[in-house]
Design a protein that fits this description.
With 257 residues, this protein is mainly beta. 2% of the residues lie in helices and 43% in strands. It is built from one helix and 16 strands. The longest helix is centred in the C-terminal third of the chain and has 5 residues. The protein is globular and about 45 Å long. The two termini are 31 Å apart.
Length: 257
């Protein structure tokens, strides 16, 4: 498949089904919802995630004192040949000081103990790359506490899986400009070097990709805003057509080594 891109330019009410997307509420992320907002001219939409969710720091996302809202592509992706997914994050509001949101790749969207990797922003000002082996505890790959997020100063978050490996590269860029397509020569230059890199001991080839939100509060939901999601490969893309059969005159034999 090719590249799938979603600009969220169609209005969907909170909780309405958004074609191609599914939601999983882990544990305490049982209130709030998700939807899109389109303002002004077409082409100016965002998707928002609104939820509780006391913490993502656990080996089991359904633990009674943990939880997050996971908004993911419905169709899993075969990442054995590599994976490249990115999104623009615009804002995080409400919730506790550690309210967070970001980009997530996980082995199974339904399994609360699934292996997963995140690149995330906290409302408190921390940028972080993290991971979890299956049924293990969350671990920090690296963090930086100097970010300042706003719709006028958005961040681009990217996770790349190297083909045939369990190595993940995490990228972060703060700019209002959009990255070129992955096959554009300027794509790597836009992202620069990886913010962090980590190799897990194991990670499924078939993965779920999407966004997450957690309020880190029992009394206040948090709301995160995203735009311009993109993933390669696109499992809904058309397969490469077979080469047309060659026709030769009767009696002609073609030998190859």
């Amino acid at each position: 498949g090719g590249v799938f891109s979603e600009a969220f330019d169609t209005d969907y009410a909170q909780g309405a089904a958004i074609p191609g997307w599914s939601v999983r509420r882990f544990s305490t992320a049982n209130d709030g919802g998700y939807g899109t907002q389109v303002t002004g001219n077409p082409g100016n939409g965002i998707v928002y995630l609104d939820s509780f969710g006391r913490s993502t720091w656990t080996n089991n996302d359904d633990s009674s004192t943990r939880g997050e809202l996971n908004f993911h592509r419905t169709t899993p992706i075969d990442s054995s040949g590599g994976l490249d997914v990115h999104v623009q994050i615009l804002d995080i509001s409400g919730g506790g000081g550690s309210a967070k949101a970001g980009l997530q790749v996980r082995g199974d969207a339904a399994d609360p103990r699934s292996a997963k990797v995140n690149v995330e922003l906290l409302k408190s000002g921390t940028l972080r790359a993290s991971y979890r082996e299956y049924n293990g505890g969350m671990q920090v790959v690296g963090s930086n506490s100097s970010h300042s997020l706003s719709p006028a100063n958005p961040y681009w978050l990217r996770i790349e899986r190297e083909a045939g490996t369990n190595t993940f590269n995490f990228y972060v860029v703060q700019t209002g400009s959009a990255p070129p397509p992955p096959d554009d020569p300027g794509y790597d230059a836009f992202w620069g070097g990886a913010f962090r890199t980590h190799t897990l001991s194991s990670f499924p080839d078939t993965v779920s990709v999407g966004l997450f939100n957690a309020s880190y509060s029992t009394s206040s939901a948090s709301t995160s805003q995203f735009d311009n999601f993109s993933v390669f490969p696109d499992p809904s893309g058309c397969p490469t057509p077979p080469e047309p059969a060659q026709e030769f005159p009767p009696g002609l034999q073609v030998c190859t080594e």
